[in-house]
């Protein structure tokens, strides 16, 4: 079930996307933990920031809940796939996809005629079971 679809401008502020995502998650998953929301917001920030830093494209954020996961998708018009890097210890930046990989059950890139979608899945697990949408 799609709970949020919001376009964004390359280089625009991420805070409106974060607020809208937080509101959608807490509305649709009333029992979700603060940790789940924080993880989702971090993944969203990293994927949106990749669009601003590595493309000239505007983008779109889509948030869905299904099958025990939160699916985060960020679309842009640039066909180049992001690369997972392993920067040197003191190098600033370059760790965004490492964070996404560490927090998500799975992530990847779907190539499209109009660019690409980078996606990540976060589990809805919590103490006592799995959350389901409201």
Percentage of β-strand residues: 25-35%
Q: Biggest sheet: strands side by side, in what order?
A: 1-2-3-5-4
CATH architecture: 2-Layer Sandwich
| CA-atom Rg in angstroms | 15 Å
Residue ranges: pLDDT <50 for 5 or more in a row?
Answer: none
Structural class: alpha+beta
CATH topology: Heat Shock Protein 90
CATH superfamily: Histidine kinase-like ATPase, C-terminal domain
Q: SSE string, helix = H, strand = E?
A: EHHEEHEEEE
Count, helices:
3
Shape summary? globular
The total number of structural domains is 1
Total strand count, please? 7
CATH class: Alpha Beta
Assign a percent range to the helix content: 25-40%
Q: Report the biggest beta sheet as strand number plus sense, adding barrel if it closes.
A: 5 strands, antiparallel
Q: In terms of quaternary structure, what is this?
A: single chain
Q: State the distance separating the first and last CA atoms.
A: 11 Å
């Amino acid at each position: 079930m799609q709970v949020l679809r919001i376009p964004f401008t390359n280089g625009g502020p991420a805070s409106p996307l974060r607020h809208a995502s937080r509101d959608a998650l807490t509305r649709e998953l009333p029992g979700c933990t603060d940790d789940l929301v924080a993880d989702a917001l971090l993944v969203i920030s990293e994927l949106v920031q990749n669009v601003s830093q590595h493309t000239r494209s505007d983008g779109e954020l889509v948030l869905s809940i299904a099958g025990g996961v939160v699916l985060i998708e960020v679309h842009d018009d640039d066909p180049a796939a992001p690369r997972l890097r392993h920067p040197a210890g003191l190098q600033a930046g370059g760790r965004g996809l490492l964070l996404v990989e560490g927090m998500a059950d799975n992530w990847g890139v779907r190539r499209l005629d109009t660019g690409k979608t980078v996606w990540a899945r976060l589990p809805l697990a919590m103490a006592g079971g799995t959350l389901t949408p409201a």
